[in-house]
Amino acid sequence: MIFILFPQPFLILLAIIAAVRKVEKSKKYQFRNKKDEWIGLASAMTVLLLFSLLFFGAGLAFPSTIVFLCIITNFMAAAFSVVFHPLTISLYEANVFVKCKTKKDYFYKYIAIITTGINYHTQKLLRFMPLVINKFLAVLFVILLVWQLFGVFMIFGD
Fold first, then answer.
1. DSSP symbol at 54
2. In angstroms, rounded to a whole number, what is the distance separating the alpha carbons of residues 84 and 152?
């Protein structure tokens, strides 16, 4: 029952938003299979895996700490984007969709995708909503992320 209860609010919220959104030209993620990109991906995953070990203190097992880290970073970005909506979209696009030249660029690209990807796609859906509805749904999204944090803790915690 608990596995069914926690993802449902996200699906309902995103279905409502997607049903009324404007269609826009979307940007594509590209994986060029270059050596620098593989090194950037591997180093980003390693740093995130090591950083997620901080949540051992919360009583979570190792693989679930990664899920907890992704949700908590998306929560922080979503709370920030309630006030600074266009800035969060611009920051994500500046890290992900620009041409990467170095391993460090690829590292930041994959850190941004893993840590704030959910928030970016939700904020893009909210972009063309009227201001009052946009802010209401953005606050609802923040509340749902907190709900998900409790869900991860209840499912995977001690």
1. G
2. 27
